[in-house]
Amino acid sequence: GVKIATLRDLLPENIGIARIMPNTPCSVGKGASAVCFDGVSAEHTTFIENILSAMGVYIRTAESNFDAVTSISGSGPAYVYMFINALTKAGIEGGLSPEDSKKLALMTVEGSAAYAAAADYDLDTLTDRVCSKGGTTIEAVEVFREKDLFGIVSAAVKACRDKSELLSKKL
């Protein structure tokens, strides 16, 4: 994205700047955004934060974190859509109709996110609580571990972050 310093060079001195990284779920009030301010009045800061709150959640962070923000919440919906698509296709392969499989996959992701947000457990513990020793879920979790799901996601997020850094330097 365009850095505040770049905008500062183009705009009059007395203009406040808010750099914001929203994501597409903001359009349905379930977004995750980040914002940083430079020279923005308290009144305008409150106004902007109220808008961001209406679109979902937001964090205030340093501009130096925006490449990381881009790679997590800015681009994150695409990663989640890919997972939902994979889960849906797996359900279809298992015999579910495309409509039923998509419905179950979507609500599983939505419900799991809501439960994780409300739970008093970390994400590893939540994963473990769904698994039973010798049960079905642990079989799938072990495949994710063997295929290094965390490594795959980490590498993808890093590639996104690196590209964001590169594009920022070009602007």
From TrEMBL:
Keyword terms: Amino-acid biosynthesis, NADP, Oxidoreductase, Proline biosynthesis
One GO MF term attached to the UniProt entry: pyrroline-5-carboxylate reductase activity
InterPro entries according to UniProt: 6-PGluconate_DH-like_C_sf (IPR008927), NAD(P)-bd_dom_sf (IPR036291), P5CR_dimer (IPR029036)
GO biological processes: L-proline biosynthetic process
Domain Pyrroline-5-carboxylate reductase dimerisation: 63-165
UniProt similarity note: Belongs to the pyrroline-5-carboxylate reductase family.
Function comment: Catalyzes the reduction of 1-pyrroline-5-carboxylate (PCA) to L-proline.
Alphabetical list of PANTHER family matching this protein: PYRROLINE-5-CARBOXYLATE REDUCTASE, PYRROLINE-5-CARBOXYLATE REDUCTASE 3
Name of the molecule in the record: Pyrroline-5-carboxylate reductase
Source species: Candidatus Stercoripulliclostridium merdigallinarum
